[in-house]
Recover the amino acids of this structure.
């Protein structure tokens, strides 16, 4: 028996064990060490699993030695091994950052609970990505969601409570829809194993329960994804959550939900059925365009930096679903790339905005909203922080040399491939909206004079800057060396898309 | 309500039998309806009954907050520990068959400890929720 054989189980179990250990330790320092160690180990395991899939193809792990399709199977292919690297990598970066960042955001006595919750959230997201069992996916979705509600409610602003409550209601409706959908699928196919479901779904997909299952899963997962008309929970949740939580959620939670959508659409139902016989491509196209324009447009008029970038996230999700609606290898690959590239860039931005909030916070008051009057002239005192946000912003726009350019380039290629030239224009025009909101930040931070009454302060502390700049560095790195992202995404798309036309 | 004779006598009679019944449900879970979740809830119900009669302050002395929190965490650890034990003894994660000298015995032993873990966490969570609700405001009894 070798340990390497058990990596799929350990990937989820180590963060899971770290959470109760953090509770038992009852000390912030010890809890921090335990959960951070678990997250870093999880990151190492994710890279090892990615290499394993790269070298020798899909990996299957029967939990409890119950052979699939009877037992729960952890199944790794191109797509989810890539997701595991994103999720665990973001946790590995966000955790060291949290130590300094939650100092003033969360009361000292509940720090160890914060780390426990972050460990559980990581467990849930990793589990959703790795599992090959529909019901297990729902269970992990609930683990990640419930811990997310708690994490958001820990924000010191009192509105964090209502934001968490709003997300709790919306998220529970979403989870209920998902479990109803999975229930219908189980009823019709008699199996919960996703790989086993594939052939059986093909026989029932035209039946009414099959279509109902598809509809429930689509709406439920779209709620968790925050696809445009179902995004109401997201801006408040990201705005009032503690800074490190905003960064972690923006980079991973919606992305893993999108992964679940891709898994159900392309693996279980199969694109040949969804995109040929149903009006799904048109629906997704309309919703994506709505997200791209509406959310990006609203983002321009936000006065709170966190809220601005929260709306920008909703807009960026539109690009990802737009790529899916093409149902071509280039389009799906562009979506998968954008999952990753946007996660990294938005993670960097939220970490840096968190550094600004930490500087603006005094000991007594609740963290102030990082509004544009407060950040005026900030580039003079916090040059690295502001420059990092600008680079992240360039990636949101899609400027060459940043990661965002690569995924938008493939998106444009996919649109051209479909002969949809007007969509190329739509992608470029919606990017101009991103230019507008990023410019608002640049204008305030670089060209406005600092307000007279503000006391002088220096650059953010290194414990905040280093993790954030790691992600900024990654944004530039994946804009230049694309072998990991583009390679994984295209191979994953080739496995997913069967509808060669 | 601690001065109410009827309540106190009924409580003294009921609480031990509630706890014994919880143990019955716990260990009967292998063969019939029952198991860790139900047993944990029943134990918690017994303690809540105690709190109704003798007050929350007395209950908090009997089952302090730190014990409740330890229960919440250690149940999960027991469950995950059974999984890891299977992994270390040469099987897959959560493989009970390798836990005993033969697979049947191993399956018994595995589900036994898993149920112990479930009961511990469920009981802890129930009490935690009860404590959180009763500690709102300042009314103690």
């Amino acid at each position: 028996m070798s340990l390497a054989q058990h990596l799929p189980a350990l990937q989820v179990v180590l963060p899971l064990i770290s959470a109760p250990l953090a509770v038992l330790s009852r000390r912030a320092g010890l809890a921090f060490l335990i959960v951070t160690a678990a997250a870093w180990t999880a990151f190492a395991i994710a890279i090892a699993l990615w290499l394993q899939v790269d070298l020798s193809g899909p990996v299957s792990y029967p939990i409890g030695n119950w052979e699939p399709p009877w037992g729960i199977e952890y199944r790794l292919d191109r797509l989810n091994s890539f997701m595991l690297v994103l999720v665990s990598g973001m946790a590995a970066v966000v955790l060291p950052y949290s130590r300094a960042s939650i100092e003033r955001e969360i009361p000292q006595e509940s720090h160890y609970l914060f780390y426990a919750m972050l460990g559980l959230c990581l467990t849930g997201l990793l589990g959703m990505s790795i599992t090959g069992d529909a019901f297990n996916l729902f269970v992990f979705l609930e683990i990640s969601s419930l811990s997310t509600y708690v994490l958001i409610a820990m924000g010191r602003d009192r509105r964090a409570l209502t934001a968490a409550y709003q997300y709790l209601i919306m998220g529970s409706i979403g989870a209920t829809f998902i479990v109803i959908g999975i229930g219908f699928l189980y009823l019709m196919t008699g199996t919960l194993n996703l790989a086993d479901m594939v052939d059986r779904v093909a026989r029932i997909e035209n039946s009414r329960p099959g279509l109902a299952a598809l509809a429930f899963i689509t709406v439920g997962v779209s709620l968790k994804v925050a696809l445009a008309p179902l995004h109401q929970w997201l801006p408040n949740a990201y705005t009032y959550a503690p800074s490190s939580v905003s960064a972690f959620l923006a980079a991973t939670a919606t992305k893993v939900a999108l992964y679940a959508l891709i898994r159900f659409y392309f693996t279980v139902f199969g694109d040949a059925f969804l995109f040929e016989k149903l009006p799904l491509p048109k629906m997704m196209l309309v919703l994506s365009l709505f997200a791209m324009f509406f959310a990006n447009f609203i983002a321009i008029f936000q006065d709170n930096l966190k809220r601005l970038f929260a709306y920008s996230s909703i807009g960026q999700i539109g690009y990802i679903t737009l790529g899916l609606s093409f149902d071509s290898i280039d389009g799906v690959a562009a979506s998968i790339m954008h999952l990753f590239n946007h996660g990294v860039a938005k993670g960097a931005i939220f970490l840096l905005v968190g550094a600004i909030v930490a500087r603006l916070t005094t000991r007594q008051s609740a963290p102030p909203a990082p509004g544009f009057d407060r950040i005026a002239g900030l580039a003079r005192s916090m040059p690295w922080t502001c420059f990092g946000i600008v680079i992240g912003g360039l990636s949101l726009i899609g400027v060459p040399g940043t990661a965002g350019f690569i995924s938008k380039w493939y998106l444009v290629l996919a649109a051209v491939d479909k002969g949809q030239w007007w969509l190329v224009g739509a992608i470029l025009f919606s990017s101009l909206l991103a230019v507008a909101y990023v410019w608002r930040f640049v204008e305030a931070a670089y060209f406005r004079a600092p307000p007279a009454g503000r006391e002088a302060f220096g650059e953010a502390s290194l414990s905040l800057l280093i993790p954030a700049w790691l992600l900024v560095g990654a944004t530039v790195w994946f804009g230049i060396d694309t072998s990991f992202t583009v390679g994984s995404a295209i191979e994953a798309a080739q496995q997913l898309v069967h509808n060669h036309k | 309500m601690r001065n109410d004779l009827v309540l106190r006598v009924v409580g003294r009679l009921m609480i031990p039998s509630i706890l014994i019944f919880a143990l019955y449900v716990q260990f009967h879970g292998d063969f019939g309806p029952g198991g860790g979740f139900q047993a944990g809830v029943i134990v918690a119900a017994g303690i809540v009954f105690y709190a109704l009669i003798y007050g929350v302050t007395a209950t908090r002395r009997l089952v302090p907050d730190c014990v409740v929190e330890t229960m919440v965490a250690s149940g999960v650890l027991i469950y995950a520990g059974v999984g890891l034990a299977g992994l270390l003894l040469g099987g897959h994660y959560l493989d009970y068959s390798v836990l005993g000298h033969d697979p049947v015995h191993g399956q018994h032993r595995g589900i036994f400890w898993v149920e112990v873990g479930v009961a511990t966490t469920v009981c802890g969570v129930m009490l935690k929720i009860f404590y959180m609700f009763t500690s709102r405001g300042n009314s103690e009894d």
Observations:
- Helices of chain B lie at 5-28, 36-54, 56-62, 65-88, 103-134.
- Chain B has one domain: 5-134.
- Residues 5-134 of chain B form one domain.
- Chain B touches chain A through 21 residues (CB under 8 Å).
